[in-house]
């Protein structure tokens, strides 16, 4: 069985800039004042002037109080365009007034507001900006968390490998053969995931495993927020019960697959997962319960639970301790040791970021969850020391590569490396996602999850508006490359659903 899824400018008329009034000119005996060259002319018959006073031809000039103005409120228009007087100006005989509903041309645009129009002048909203203006701050923080995590996930080179799982098997086999060819023939032309005669959509930039397992955790938060489900329990107990139900449902699928296979590890599963997750699900299927499922696990130390913890922090915004406790409850299904410490640290940091805290308090909250005597605690403190002495996130990359990242083990997914890297780059970038994520992606050995963790924290710090529109559109929809049932999930919509589950804050 599987758990129920929560998902089963009009253009303004361009006007000529207003010219400065020329020096006084002698009054002519005619009713029309001469107009400078290249300036559109209009008759002054629309203006009432007192006797024996010089007149001007529809120029926008200031007049003393209590004197009639020349076409009050009128602006100049290019030749061959009709002019309209202000609503209070009397139209002379034999000249039609402005039609009902017709608007006078707008004045010149603000000269200092051209950043979004390529120098055109008036401000136009960037893509997604109009939507952001109407959203609440909590939703913007959650949106930044989800999209930042997805963007970081997509930025790492392993994402293309994960997304290639949606391609036919023979395309991946051919890539492996090309890699073997390069090795045997000493060629430096290395293969990449290929589409050949298949649609290339799965290989385009987009989120992969980290984002989908984060949404897996979000499902539990959504279930707990539904008062009609387990409504007799407190919100915290409902959340923990929902987490257990979510894992148990997956374990049931593992058990069913194991019945058709000689052993659990060789079962064909309806998902793709980290070694720690697959081992934890296998332990659940055989009847083990946490913490044994995470302790008796060959990859108890990896960072799979850290990604889930970032989303679970939504259940306790502003409360790093309770967020860390909930993250540990979930992490025990698949992790132990540094894997659990890392999950607690990420949840604590994100919980504060969701309420608008600055970078330093968020990182301090994470550090408080990392015991000094552990590997992850030592690495985090050393990485932060390096970050404080670095000039920028880019300058920090070689230091982290040489002093934090391990080059011995066959997988670059240890929480003792990826969490310190994410925290250090967040500090070096001063919470700016546009600096932290690219820097994390440069660390190729930890690029499977360090960019996603850095993106989640900096995205929550900066909110949804900190995510460029191009990344927002590329990363908002899941492809289902590891959890097929999540195919098509929209992270922007999910942010709204998660925001609706948050408890009311004191004072509004």
UniProtKB/TrEMBL annotation:
One Gene Ontology molecular-function label: metal ion binding
Disordered, as annotated region: 1-139
Keywords for the protein's UniProt record, in alphabetical order: Magnesium, Metal-binding
Positions that bind Mg(2+): 448-449
Cofactor names: Mg(2+)
Cofactor, free-text remark: Binds 2 magnesium ions per subunit.
Record Pfam families: ADP_ribosyl_GH (PF03747)
SUPFAM superfamilies per UniProt: ADP-ribosylglycohydrolase (SSF101478)
Keyword RNA-binding included in the entry's annotation: no
Official protein name in the record: Adhesin
Species in which this protein is naturally found: Streptomyces caeruleatus
Lineage of the organism: Bacteria, Bacillati, Actinomycetota, Actinomycetes, Kitasatosporales
């Amino acid at each position: 069985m599987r758990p129920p899824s929560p998902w089963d400018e009009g253009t303004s008329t361009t006007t000529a800039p207003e010219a400065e009034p020329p020096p006084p000119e002698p009054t002519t005996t005619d009713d029309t004042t001469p107009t400078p060259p290249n300036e559109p002319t209009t008759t002054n018959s629309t203006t009432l002037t007192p006797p024996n006073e010089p007149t001007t031809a529809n120029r926008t000039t200031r007049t003393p109080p209590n004197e009639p103005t020349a076409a009050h409120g009128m602006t100049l228009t290019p030749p061959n365009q009709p002019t309209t007087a202000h609503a209070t100006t009397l139209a002379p005989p034999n000249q039609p007034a402005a039609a009902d509903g017709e608007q006078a041309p707008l004045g010149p645009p603000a000269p200092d507001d051209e950043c979004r129009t390529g120098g055109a002048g008036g401000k136009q909203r960037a893509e997604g900006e109009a939507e952001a203006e109407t959203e609440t701050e909590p939703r913007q923080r959650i949106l930044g968390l989800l999209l930042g995590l997805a963007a970081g996930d997509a930025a790492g080179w392993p994402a293309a490998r994960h997304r290639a799982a949606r391609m036919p098997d023979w395309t991946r086999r051919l890539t492996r053969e090309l890699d073997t060819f390069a090795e045997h023939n000493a060629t430096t032309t290395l293969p990449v995931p290929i589409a050949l005669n298949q649609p290339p959509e799965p290989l385009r930039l987009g989120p992969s495993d980290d984002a989908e397992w984060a949404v897996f955790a979000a499902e539990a938060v959504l279930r707990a927020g539904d008062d009609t489900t387990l409504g007799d329990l407190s919100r915290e107990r409902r959340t923990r019960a929902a987490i257990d139900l979510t894992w148990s449902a997956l374990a049931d699928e593992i058990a069913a697959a194991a019945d058709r296979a000689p052993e659990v590890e060789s079962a064909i599963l309806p998902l793709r997962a980290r070694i720690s997750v697959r081992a934890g699900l296998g332990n659940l299927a055989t009847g083990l319960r946490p913490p044994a499922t995470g302790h008796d696990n060959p990859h108890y130390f990896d960072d799979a639970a850290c990604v889930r913890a970032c989303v679970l922090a939504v259940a306790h915004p502003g409360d790093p301790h309770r967020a860390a406790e909930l993250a540990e409850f979930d992490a025990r299904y698949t992790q132990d040791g540094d894997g659990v410490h890392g999950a607690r640290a990420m949840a604590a940091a994100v919980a504060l970021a969701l309420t608008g805290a600055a970078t330093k308090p968020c990182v301090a909250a994470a550090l408080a969850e990392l015991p000094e005597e552990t590997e992850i605690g030592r690495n985090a403190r050393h990485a932060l020391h390096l970050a404080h002495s670095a000039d920028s996130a880019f300058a920090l990359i070689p230091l982290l590569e040489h002093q934090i990242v391990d080059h011995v083990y066959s997988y670059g997914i240890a929480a003792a490396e990826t969490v310190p890297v994410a925290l250090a780059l967040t500090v070096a970038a001063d919470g700016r996602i546009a600096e932290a994520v690219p820097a994390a992606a440069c660390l190729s050995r930890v690029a499977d999850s360090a960019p996603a963790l850095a993106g989640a924290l900096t995205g929550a710090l900066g909110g949804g508006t900190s995510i460029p529109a191009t990344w927002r559109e590329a990363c908002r929809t899941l492809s289902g490359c590891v959890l097929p049932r999540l195919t098509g999930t929209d992270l922007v919509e999910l942010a709204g659903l998660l925001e609706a589950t948050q408890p009311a804050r004191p004072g509004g």
